[in-house]
Each structure stands twice: as C-alpha cells, then as structure tokens.
Amino acid sequence: MTNRLRYGLLGAGMMGREHLRNLALFKDVAVVAICEPNPGMLKKARVLAPDAVFVPDLQALLAQQLDALVIATPNFMHCDQLLTVLSTCQIPVLVEKPLVTSEVDVQRLRLALEAHATFVWVGMEYRFMPALAAFDAKQAVVGQRRMLSIREHRYPFLKKVDDWNRFNQYSGGTFVEKCCHFFDLMRLFLQAEPVRVFASAAQDVNHLAERYGGAQPDIWDNGYVIIDFDNGCRGMLDLCMFADGVRFEQEISLVGDLGRLDCQIPGPFQIEGVAPEPARLISSPRAPATPVIERVMVPKAAMDAGSHQGATFFQHQAFLAAVLSDKPPAVSADDGLMAVLMGLAAQASATTKQAVEIDAQNFRLL
Residue 249 and residue 151: Cα distance in Å, rounded? Predict the structure, then answer.
C-alpha cells in the first residue's frame, strides 16, 4: 500500500463508480478517500472501495494525503470545484467532461489556469477507445483530410442522481453534455480549430411526459451539427437518442483525396439474437478495390469495468503514466474548454437558427 499512488474521488455516482471499478484493476493505485453526499451512492461506493476514508466535503478530501484526484460530480459543479482545487493545492486532477457548462465559466477557468500551473486532465475517454485510437493511427490512408462525419444513434439519457441531466441549466445542454466527446474527436482527427458552427436540433421524443418538481425536461434528443474548421475541413455530427437497438452506436467516417476510413462501434446493449461483435475499421481506397476490414478486440477486464469499449481503463492507464513520468496531460484543459465552446455554439445556433462563429484563439463565441 505504501508504494501505491493515493487517489481521491469526488463524486461516486454512475461515472464515479466506473472510475472505482477501473482503478481497482491497477496494482499501483489505491483509492484512499471519497466524497459523496448522496446516501444511496455512498452505500454503493463503500462496496467498491471498503478501505477508503469517506469525507463530508471537498476541503476535507483535499486535506487527505493524495497523489491524484478524480472529479466525477454533475456537470454544473465542475467549474467551482476545480477552482477550489486550483486555489488549494497542486495535485494532478482528472476531471470528467464537460469541463464547464457556460461561456462565463470558460473564461473564469481560463484565468485560474493561467495563474496556477496545475496538471488538469479532462475525461474525454472516447479518445482512448481502442477502435478510435486505431482510427487515429490509420488516418494516413485517406490522404489529405477533407470531411469527417460522426453518427451516434443510441438510447436515451440514463437516470442520474437528482435527475440533473434532464435540464440544460445543469448539464449545459445535450450538445455540451453528450457531444463534447465528438467535438473533441473532430479537433483531434482533423488537427484543426473550429471557426463556424451551424446546427438544428429539438426534443421530439424523449422525456416529454416526465416532470421533476413540476418542471418538464428541456434536453434535446436529436440534431445535426455542421462545423467549418480553419484548415478548410468540414465536420458533421448526426445525433439521435431514440434509436435503441441499432447495430452500431457510433459510426465515424473520414474522407480524403485518396479514400475513406470508417470506424463502427457497437453499443453496450446487444440486439436480441445477434452475437456480440467487436468494433471494426474499414479502409476504402478511391480506386475500385475491396475494402479492408479490421476487427478491434478489447481485453475483457477493461470491457467489464465500464462502458465505451474499455475507454475508461485505457484513459486511466495513460493518466497514470503521465503523472508518474511528469509529462503533460494528453487531454488538456484547453482541449476540454474548446469542446465545450463547440457545444455551446451548436446550442446557440440551433436556438437562433443562425450560424455561430468561434474565436478559438481567445476561447469565445462571436
């Protein structure tokens, strides 16, 4: 135990417990302190981490002797909690996405990060899906990149503690809460910054009959987003959250002057009568030829510890390696803030029915 890195966990809801299950797979890590105010979530966390100390608040958590901190609280809490961490200590932090939920908080956090040289890693675990890591490594087959499309057709939002993800004011909106992952992937794959966003979206099917304290949820359940990038590339997102039972939950296509590269990722729920299948890559050159199909396998332990094809495990593996080697985070706070800005631009565009421009250099909407 004395040689293990001592981790603290802030928030033990659904995602927090996924972090606990994955961290348990690392022999050189021990989760020694947890802060979770909800009694039901606290009880579940005790089962996963019986040796941890359970503390009442963030200050008590930071008072523990920690080597790293994981923040997995509801979206709207991230900014203030991270500001507290930055002003209190220099501990490495992995904070769940989205990093913030408003443009005001983008600016607040940027100022704080400029004043405090703290290691902040944003939990964009989709980067660490084995299939998407393989996709990134094979981009050269398309030649000069021109167009990237991402489709996610899936099940509705899951239930969260106190139903915070049913309302834009707490989640940041669907394009921030859910789609910051995809906007991050667009920047990663295209190696470019967004300049203009146009979106159309609505709440058409999900949560219409639900009421929480008399209020109806206002999160959107479908939409399209088109993004222009500063290198001339274009990206498109196609989101539908009432498409339960589709064969592939995510489908990514990158097209260049030499061909196309596709990635198809099955969802966590299998279609009845259809055997589970791995994610796969498909390389298709422009000239008539047989596409090359590669299947991407994932270790069972990583799959069982969480969703997203074991991405949380591989993210923690990379986070731990960076902390131990004193390297910078693979997913920086700037990456997290830019993904939020793209989501906020999409929310604003769909609301106003106008294109929204992004000043990527100064992290603001125009």
Answer: 8
Q: Are strands 222-229 and 250-256 parallel, antiparallel or unpaired?
A: unpaired
Helix (H, G, I), strand (E, B) or coil at 223: strand
Q: CB of 132 within 8 A of CB of 264? A: no
Tens-digit pLDDT profile for the chain (366 aa)?
458 999 999 999 999 999 999 999 999 999 999 999 999 999 999 999 999 999 999 999 999 999 999 999 999 999 999 999 999 999 999 999 999 999 999 999 999 999 988 999 999 999 999 999 999 999 999 999 999 999 999 999 999 999 999 999 999 999 999 999 999 999 999 999 999 999 999 999 999 999 999 999 999 999 999 999 999 999 999 999 999 878 899 999 999 999 999 999 998 766 566 667 899 999 999 877 889 999 998 888 888 888 788 999 999 999 999 999 999 999 999 999 999 999 999 999 999 999 999 999 999 999
Handedness of CA 34, 38, 42, 45 (dihedral sign): negative
Question: Rounded to an integer, what distance in angstroms lies between the CA atom of residue 249 and that of residue 15?
Answer: 19
Torsions phi, psi for 248 (to 5 deg) = -120, 125
CA 170-96-4 angle, to 5 degrees, is 145
The CA angle 72-227-206, to the nearest 5 degrees, is: 55
Cut 0.90: pTM above it: yes
Structural domains in the chain? 5-125 (3.40.50.720), 127-307+337-365 (3.30.360.10)
The whole-angstrom separation of Cα 187 and Cα 144 is 15
